[in-house]
Amino acid sequence: MKDWAESIDGVAAETHFSGAVRVDLGDDAVFERAYGLAQRAWDIPNAVDTRFAIASGGKGMTALTVVSLIEAGRLELTTTARSVLGRDLPLIADDVTVEHLLAHRSGIGDYLDEDGDHEIEDYVMPVPVHELRTTEQYLRVLDGYPQKFAPGERFSYCNGGYVVLALIAERVTGTFFHELVEQHVCAPAGMPDTAFLQSDELPAGAALGYLATDGLTTNGFHLPVRGSGDGGIYSTAADVHAFWNALFGGRIVSEQWVKEMVRPRSDVPSESKRYGLGFWLHATNETVMLLGFDAGVSFHTGHDPVRRITYTVLSNTSRGAWPIADHLDEQLAI
């Protein structure tokens, strides 16, 4: 175990890693360590309980919020987006369903198309980021993108589709999406430090996102000031571990629905993975993953429910998580 820990430290030192790493084998946290600085200007170090943005890692929580509403009878997989959106977002096809959106098979045009020709540190938001604090405010950035293909035809990762899911959840419940995630995911999972924080008023204990391994430039002008269904929630290594335990323990949604959500719906050869409903899936084994990648944010967590192995890498730089996550993949054979 000592050699294994030293190898993680070695990768962290070689890559100037900034963030936190945790590995759990069964009920035991066998490795938990933080590296680098949460706020560089003040030399505030990252800690194992630092709250990091996890970008698209939050899509799994969006999916679980929606599925919990299905279990409660407020929605169905076959519910169409149009039946809830009314006249809003008229370019979304009338036959796009909740299931299509969850599986990234809706074909809707994406306001933040990851197939586009841009780098992660580019300024890509179509409106000033401070104007995006509520999910309804995203309507103006979601509008105007025609269907790319017919619903169900194929997989195409779609950030906008998950904001549409957040809008649907809000409108059928009359409750703000951020509160729904707290009620339906964070509370039952025991995740007290996970929340949609506002980047312009981060509390103590939260890490700023940096664009490079050195320097003081943050991601403050790159991302919505408060995230929504496609990402932007903050969490800790311990809360992510609690999330996996609660998910596969049936404490967020029923075990039957968990099986449905991690059932492969698409092969994604470009990522060497498969996709279910809100979760990335290993190409050949039972490992379930959440990934996040944004300006000043990188996040990778994987859970093998058969061997009960979990690892989580959170970083407050754009690409910092990947070398350590790759190393853990190799070490743990996940």
Q: In brief, what are we looking at here?
A:
The protein has ten helices and twelve strands. The protein is α+β, with helices and mostly antiparallel strands and 334 residues long.
CATH architecture: 3-Layer(aba) Sandwich
CATH topology: Beta-lactamase
The percent range for helix content is 25-40%
The CATH superfamily is identified as: DD-peptidase/beta-lactamase superfamily
Q: Strand-residue fraction? A: 15-25%
User: Gap between N and C termini, in Å?
Assistant: 17 Å
Identify the CATH class.
Alpha Beta
Give me the oligomer status: single chain
Give, in spatial order, the strands making up the sheet with the most strands: 2-1-12-11-10-9-8-7
- Structurally, the number of domains stands at 1
Biggest sheet character: 8 strands, antiparallel
Q: Please compute the radius of gyration using only Cα atoms.
A: 19 Å
SSE run:
HEEEEEHHHHHHEHHEEEEEEH
Mean pLDDT: 95
Total E-strand runs: 12
- Overall structural class, as computed from helix and strand content, comes to alpha+beta
Overview of the molecule:
The chain is α+β, with helices and mostly antiparallel strands. It has ten helices and twelve strands. The chain has one domain: DD-peptidase/beta-lactamase superfamily (Beta-lactamase, 3-Layer(aba) Sandwich). The chain has helices spanning 2-15, 59-71, 81-85, 98-102, 139-142, 159-173, 177-189, 237-248, 255-261, 321-332, and strands at 19-25, 28-35, 37-39, 44-45, 52-53, 234-235, 266-268, 273-275, 280-282, 288-294, 297-304, 309-315. The strands form three sheets. An eight-stranded antiparallel beta sheet has the order 2-1-12-11-10-9-8-7, sandwiched between helices. It has a two-stranded antiparallel ribbon with strand order 3-4. The chain starts with a helix and ends with a helix.
